[in-house]
Amino acid sequence: MTLQESLFNQLPSDTLYFEKLAQAQGFLKIAGVDEVGRGPLAGPVLAAAVILPAGLLIPGVDDSKKLSQHKRETLFDIIMDQALSIGIGSAGAETIDSINILQATRLAMLNAVQQLSPQPDYLLIDGITPINSALPQKTVKKGDSLSLSIAAASIIAKVTRDRLMTDMDQRYPGYGFAGHKGYGSAAHLEAIRRLGPSPIHRLTFGGVKEHAACTSS
Fold it and tell me: Nearest-CA neighbor of 47 among 119, 120, 127, 136?
């Protein structure tokens, strides 16, 4: 049995399983790709792509949604220090409204990959939808829990977007972006009703579109 065949027969309990599988096929620079921000009513959908050194294990790296803010921030610094390459891509509210959230997510992921230097030769993408890239790629459902590279990308994306939304809270006060990060909390919905949408709100999303006629400056 070849190494590739034996890897196919393994259960993906090893968080480097998908990376090892790609390496067994001859790929050397494997990028994990993930996004954050598909559900919020405001702000961009933001993606990260991360190439880690082959065989590197970073204790604690997991799906960013499972980690505390403090843990994410700590791991963010470690990943930034140890990764071979990191790319960030985003698609803002106007793009989301224009092409829909799925296509905007794919675009943000593609932009993140294009920012990598060196460029990868293989992509591991969280979810079930490939991106518009000629690079060999594999989609991995719940990949942020199964692949170390994708989990690292999820942490980079989450921390980066959270920081951006904290900045947006100062630029567009009154909405509470620093707290809910653009998600549809009761306080956020009430702020939209009271103030109207801001320039970073997604005007095609429920909870916003009903108030799109009274846009905040």
Answer: 127
